[in-house]
Batch of 2 targets.
Target 1
Amino acid sequence: MIPNYDIPNDLIPSDPRFGCGPTLIPNETVQKLVDHGPHLLGTSHRSKAVKDLVKEIQQGLVNYFNLPSGYEVVLGNGGATFLFDAIGLGLVQKKSTHFTCGEFSNKWFKSHKLIPWIEAEEVAAEYGTGITAENRSDADMICVTLNETSTGVMVDSLPDVDEETILAVDATSGGGQVPCDLSKVDLFFFAPQKVFASEGGTFVAIMSPKAQKRALEINDSDRYIPGIMNWKTAMDNAEKNQTYNTPCISALFYLNEQIKRMNAVGYEGVIAEGNKRADFIYQWATNHPKLSCYISDQKYRSNAVATIDVDESFDVTPFIKELEQRQLVYGIGSYRKLGRNQFRIALFQAISFDDIVKLTKIIDLALK
Ligand SMILES: Cc1ncc(COP(=O)(O)O)c(C=O)c1O
């Protein structure tokens, strides 16, 4: 497809996975799971081994995010999309306001919009631009997406909300790498298939005392909430270091290993690593005659997901296909529904900086 396109051996990345979700799970983590397998996989999720694992995850996140006392780390199945509905059904009293700038933030809005007994309002920015959320006196939940995976926009700041309002942050994409003061946030949730280098299907919801109170108030009301979305059960189980129902134990294992790795560097350190990657990749794109940064406003450019537009004279589709066929690079196409002539590259902590540099050189060779 690309004639005479040779990639020197020293440019071959140590790992081909640059996708934004799911992301790579380090090989050594998978090997460690194999070694631990007989003592963990296929044991009861109410057993000591699994409860210890959940406890380590909870404690690891408390340390990593320096969570104020009273915050609860709740785990369950279903991923982030499941939580969109569970939040609308179980944590919004009357109205949620959603600040949206891409597919995922819009999807969260739509899931609340469909619930007949609450109101949902969307404040939307055009794709490719960012949005700064504000408090709204008529909403009891403000919904913010920390990092919009579809476009590569991260939030620049979070609003102060009043005592009656829940600030909810979907941190699935950049959570753990995009700066965020969790003491300001009431519900910080994610599925761990990105910065947390695990698999999809699990959710983590970090709840402030205010969010827990809201969950109990709605639980005690006569509102119907499907059993699987019962926040009280999920919170009660979290206190016992258990997931809501039978978990995917391997995903918990991978998540815990990545939390340990991230704790070794510290949140500030991981943010700094992300910024270094971001500075490098945006500089590269800015200086290249055939590339440009899709997000023009620098303050919204993500340190976790980089979106780089490519001049129309070069069609990225056959190039990306060829790299995948050669098993050299996976997952650098633009978000499906965005459909741009674009590279979207994950800058997640588990992806090596050297590999990101190599990837840019591989692209340079093709663009010559
Ligand atoms: C910001 C954001 N929110 C939500 C989701 C949906 O997550 P899940 O597939 O776990 O439901 C994604 C998935 O990529 C995401 O990037």
Target 2
Amino acid sequence: MNEKTVKRKRIGIIGVGNIGSSILRGLLAADEGRSSGKIFISDVRRENLKSLESEQGSRVVACESNGELSKKSDVIILAVKPNDVDGVVKEIAPFMDEDKILVSVAAGVPTGAVERDLGEGKKVIRVMPNIGALVGESVTAMCRGAYARDEDEAIAKEILGAIGTVYSVQETDIDIITGLSGSGIAFFAAVIEAMAAGGLYEGLPHDVSLAISAKTALGAAKMVLAGYEPSAIKKMTASPGGTTIRGLYAMDAKDVKAAMMEAVIEATKRAREISSKAQ
Ligand SMILES: NC(=O)c1ccc[n+]([C@@H]2O[C@H](COP(=O)([O-])OP(=O)(O)OC[C@H]3O[C@@H](n4cnc5c(N)ncnc54)[C@H](OP(=O)(O)O)[C@@H]3O)[C@@H](O)[C@H]2O)c1
């Protein structure tokens, strides 16, 4: 990928709520040289624009409309709620020529549905990030529509790389990744919270227990990413008659593993329901 090509791209973000503003902050933190250091933003909530302008200064340019933003940008990141996608895509379609790339963040909205409203030949990339974007640790799944090419996906990958790790996937897998990662980060948050509550119950101060629980999760995640199988971590920790096997027994007795699997399966099912309505 030619880095200069990416850096020359003017980036706009429509909808700067939870995810849109995280992407914005990640981009600004990662590379001040993009878009001559400026990113265009638009949102129906003027207060979102104002607070980002006061936080980021001249590095962001608030646009009066989504149309103005689309006119000024080469890569348009669409980060509005799924129900608002249809209306926004129709609104910006007249400003989207075939060189521009629309990157849609919306859960459950297939590339085909966006292309239908945007017009034939228009480049669409669909991504599923997660809220880890706030700390530069988004897991982002990416696929492309019928008209986007390898180089368009590479540009989107580099842009979204500013907020974490990007995986190229088949569009048919996006709903699963929505369950596993888009929603899954909240499942891990619930586990961290529950384990911290256990520490609190036994007498640790709340903040100490929460920090230790989160750091322990981080350690487990880093070990798995370093190549240790989860079963190996359990084996290395559980000694005969010890504390770990007692805790693992308690988890099995409550079928925690089945419950965690179920969480991903149910979230995936819901993502598929939403997708089928948007077809
Ligand atoms: N949050 C997550 O963890 C997450 C993870 C992965 C993917 N996503 C996807 O990311 C998208 C955004 O989610 P979010 O949680 O960031 O939502 P959000 O916080 O509600 O942000 C969306 C923003 O867009 C604004 N908006 C609505 N209609 C608009 C329009 N026509 N033009 C311009 N701006 C408009 C909203 O204003 P109003 O509030 O007034 O409507 C809001 O400020 C969704 O499609 C979601 O599926 C979210």
